[in-house]
């Protein structure tokens, strides 16, 4: 059984401390949701593990959500199912309970990745989906020039794509998910063409990586990025990204079919 923080958070991040504004900055992006919908295929019943505030939960299927953090459960819109307080590592369902299962932006936080993935597979009859970032592709993002510490933290946390495929088992498909320019889900790379947004402390805190860094890293990042935006240095090097329709970054959808 994973250790739990005071609000129930069961991963490496404490959403009781950092999660209050999560739903404001992390709204599901329609283009990413469409990739997930395609992979869910004809599934009627869907389990969402590490469901948080409900991003990417399909509205046209019967969804069961599992979320250990009370702070995150409290941010779920009333139109969505009330989330069950449980962890990925010990899903409270019999074998083969759901047509499909999904887990978005969460596996890097689990205390026991293998156990959580095996649990997803155990309770799922059809496809099991994991939306995550490839640790080997994180340095494609210009943030690596400005706050390499943030990228390094993420590279240590995100499991290798192969480890996720092995843990889920079955036939594995890995889909590279393009990140749209006006992505509404504020994970770091979502701001690839809108650098000013990352000057907002709330936007940074909606990415748990920053909670593992000394505040001085954030302060130095803001100082340097602000300077380069004012002088035009950022635009000289990366300005083409402001109009680039999508970014092939680290986002991946791993689909396991039995
Ligand atoms: C970055 S949020 C993602 C939430 C949502 N899936 C989304 O895409 O916005 C990560 C979520 O994983 C949850 N989580 C962390 N460790 C977990 C575990 N061991 N079992 C289940 N959920 C976990 C956290 O409580 C948090 O809500």
What is the topology?
Layout: H1 15-18, H2 22-25, H3 30-40, E1 45-49, E2 62-66, H4 70-73, E3 100-104, H5 113-123, E4 128-133, H6 143-146, H7 148-157, H8 161-168, E5 171-176, E6 179-180, H9 201-205, H10 215-231, H11 233-238, E7 246-247, E8 251-257
Parallel strand pairs: 1-2, 1-3, 3-4
Antiparallel strand pairs: 4-8, 5-8, 6-7
Helix pairs in contact: 5-8
Bound molecules: S-adenosylmethionine.
Give a nutshell description of this structure.
This protein has eleven helices and eight strands.
- For the secondary structure, the number of strands is 8
Percentage of β-strand residues = 5-15%
Distinct small molecules:
S-adenosylmethionine
Structural class of the helices, strands and pairings? alpha/beta
**Unreliable stretches:** none
Numbering strands along the chain, what is their spatial order in the largest sheet? 2-1-3-4-8-5
Major sheet description: 6 strands, mixed
Report the C-alpha radius of gyration, rounded. Answer: 18 Å
- Tell me the series of helices and strands, N- to C-terminal: HHHEEHEHEHHHEEHHHEE
What is the molecular shape?
globular
Q: Helical element count?
A: 11
The average pLDDT value, as a whole number, equals 96
- Name the helicity range: 25-40%
The N- to C-terminal Cα distance equals 26 Å
> What is the quaternary state of this protein?
single chain
Structure keywords:
11 helices, two-stranded antiparallel ribbon
Protein model, in words:
The protein has 258 residues and is an alpha/beta fold. It is built from eleven helices and eight strands. The strands form two sheets. It has a six-stranded mixed β-sheet, with helices on both faces. Helix 5 (113-123) links the parallel strand 3 and strand 4 (128-133). The longest helix is centred in the last third of the chain and has 17 residues, at 215-231. The two termini are 26 Å apart. It binds S-adenosylmethionine. S-adenosylmethionine (SAM) is lined by residues 2, 9-11, 15, 26, 49-52, 55-56, 67-69, 72, 87-89, 104-106, 109-111.
């Amino acid at each position: 059984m994973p250790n739990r923080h005071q609000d129930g958070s069961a991963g490496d991040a404490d959403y009781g401390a950092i999660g209050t504004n999560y739903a404001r900055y992390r709204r599901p992006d329609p283009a990413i949701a469409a990739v997930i919908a395609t992979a869910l295929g004809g599934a009627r019943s869907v389990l969402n593990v590490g469901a948080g505030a409900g991003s990417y939960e399909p509205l046209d299927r019967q969804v069961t959500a599992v979320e250990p953090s009370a702070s995150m459960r409290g941010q779920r819109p009333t139109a969505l199912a009330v989330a069950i307080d449980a962890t990925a590592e010990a899903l409270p369902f019999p074998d083969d309970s759901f047509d499909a299962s999904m887990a978005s932006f969460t596996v890097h936080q689990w205390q026991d990745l293998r156990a959580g993935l095996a649990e997803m597979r155990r309770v799922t009859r059809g496809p099991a989906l994991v939306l995550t970032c490839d640790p080997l592709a994180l340095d494609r993002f210009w943030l690596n020039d400005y706050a390499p510490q943030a990228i390094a933290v993420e590279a240590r946390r995100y499991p290798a794509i192969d480890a996720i495929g092995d843990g889920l088992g079955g036939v594995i498909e890995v889909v590279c998910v393009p990140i749209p320019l006006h992505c509404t889900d504020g994970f770091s790379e979502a701001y690839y063409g809108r650098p000013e947004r990352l000057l907002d402390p709330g936007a940074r805190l909606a990415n748990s990586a920053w909670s593992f860094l000394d505040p001085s890293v954030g302060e130095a990042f803001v100082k340097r990025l602000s300077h380069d935006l004012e002088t035009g240095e950022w635009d000289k090097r990366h300005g083409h990204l402001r109009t680039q329709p999508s970014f092939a970054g680290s986002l991946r959808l791993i689909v396991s079919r039995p």
